[in-house]
Predict the structure.
Amino acid sequence: MPVTLYHNILSAPCRAVMMCAKTIGLDLEEKSVDLFSGEHMKPEFLAMNPCHCVPTIDEDGFIMWESRAINIYLNDKYCKTPEKLYPKNPEKRAQINLMLQYDLCSFNPAIVGYMAPLLFAKKDPDEEAKKKLADQLETFDKMLEGKKYVAGNELSLADFTLGGSCGMLGIVGYDTSSYKNIVAWRDRMVALPGIKDIQERMMAAAAAMQSS
Ligand SMILES: N[C@@H](CCC(=O)N[C@@H](CS)C(=O)NCC(=O)O)C(=O)O
């Protein structure tokens, strides 16, 4: 059954789903949604997803949104070894859930708070937004100390989510070079099959948007 992904390549949660699908070997039928022209507010889209957000998946009429939930579903259904990315062991799963919630509640909002004025109002973020992001990057860098991936030494669903969020900073060329654990983890992520391609598509779309 083909899975259609409604997405926008500039969106962090969309890239999280794309990275997950790529890693589990699932081919998605991609449909790009132009958020800037309000395509997600059209009646057809709202009929499918009243929350009017991407990513949204449609699997022969089975519709869902919320990237973290989508990734759990796709991994459960399509990965031959679903325990690899989302182990059943309670402590391991708890660590992954912790990082997914950390992204949802703290990390991603700090990035969006910093990026939104730059992308949508073409103005600098205020001092509070700058400080919130710097604090989160420092915290995340500490959380990565001694780990290969965000929830331990194994790749997990949380890496795609945090990877999607972190990738946003590339769009505006935010300098993260002083966060050595983040840099090392990001390099590890980009080296995974298919991930660099998603990153490059994001950068190309960002360049096109900035020159328009
Ligand atoms: N918590 C959601 C966030 C989805 C979200 O906010 N998507 C943005 C793009 S990054 C969007 O579609 N915004 C348009 C809207 O909500 O109207 C997820 O992880 O999927």
User: Anything to note?
Assistant: The chain has two domains: 3-83, 86-211. The chain has a mean pLDDT of 96.
